[in-house]
Design goal:
- The chain has 252 residues and is an alpha/beta fold.
- It has 10 helices and 11 strands.
- The strands form 2 sheets. Strands 1, 4, 5, 6, 7, 8, 9, 10 and 11 form a 9-stranded mixed sheet that branches.
- Strand 2 and strand 3 form a beta hairpin.
- The longest helix has 12 residues.
- 36% of the residues are buried.
């Protein structure tokens, strides 16, 4: 890694299923602190929490980390990260890792892979990861975002629908064995210059229809490089059941 790598962790207070999620204590430690301690294993020049709640900011700072207040009006995590890029005055070629605050067990190998994908593909403005889909029920689950890529690993489209559609196989509710079905992982690395532009772009019909912010970038011609994750991604923390599971894992 080099000095041009920075990490931003969006930490919004409001959550539909777990209000105040970043502040929830799990095994004696707030979730946002679990995320920060995990993220700091990545060699980065700076690490910043982007939040909309003073309680989160004060908690983060009390543990010796940096946090910035951002607007409560942001509709996506990318918009929140973009505000931090401007406030921090990061140079356009800085690589900004959007580290998910509710996925503190993210393997560091996957983050490094994400960064390297952007470094190795200068035409890309965004890098992301995916895992292979192995069963039909996961493929048709609209909560699982799918993507298709070209022969050079650049994203062609993201959707909550099952893509690519195989008429022959789907009629029997089977996966087409000729196809690698890709489940998108919500990890991103961006070029700071792109983020400065992204915040000024109007949302698009595709983005609003699918509720997928990456479609805004693609609609305006920005390229996204997508690689298969080296390590399996753990399940994020979205429900009370996830909290119980995580506590069991860290107490083993």
């Amino acid at each position: 890694m080099n000095s041009d790598i920075v990490i931003c962790i969006p930490a919004r207070y409001q959550s539909t299923r777990l209000p105040g999620k970043p502040l929830i204590e799990i095994a004696g430690k707030p979730l946002i602190i679990w995320a920060l301690e995990s993220a700091k294993t990545i060699k980065a020049k700076q690490m910043v929490v982007a939040t909309d709640d003073l309680r989160i900011k004060e908690l983060v700072e009390s543990h010796g980390y940096r946090a910035l207040m951002t607007s409560i009006e942001h509709s996506t995590g990318t918009d929140r990260v973009a505000e931090v890029v401007k406030k921090m005055s990061w140079s356009d070629d800085t690589i900004v890792v959007n580290y998910q605050g509710d996925e503190p067990m993210t393997p560091s190998a996957n983050i490094e892979q994400l960064i390297n994908a952007l470094v190795d593909n200068p035409q890309a403005s965004i890098a992301t990861l995916y895992q292979q889909v192995h069963n039909y029920s996961d493929l048709i689950n609209s909560n699982n975002v799918k993507l298709v890529t070209d022969e050079n690993d650049y994203a062609l489209y993201f959707s909550r629908s099952a893509i690519p559609y195989s008429r022959e196989c789907f009629n029997s509710q089977q996966l087409d064995t000729k196809v690698i079905y890709k489940h998108h992982i919500g990890l991103y690395a961006y070029r700071a210059g792109f983020l400065k532009d992204f915040s000024s772009l109007e949302s698009t019909v595709l983005e609003e229809t699918e509720c997928l912010e990456q479609l805004r970038a693609m609609s305006y011609g920005y390229k996204i490089i997508a690689k298969q994750a080296q390590e399996p991604m753990p399940h994020g923390i979205d429900t009370p059941e996830d909290i119980v599971r995580f506590e069991k894992e860290v107490n083993q």
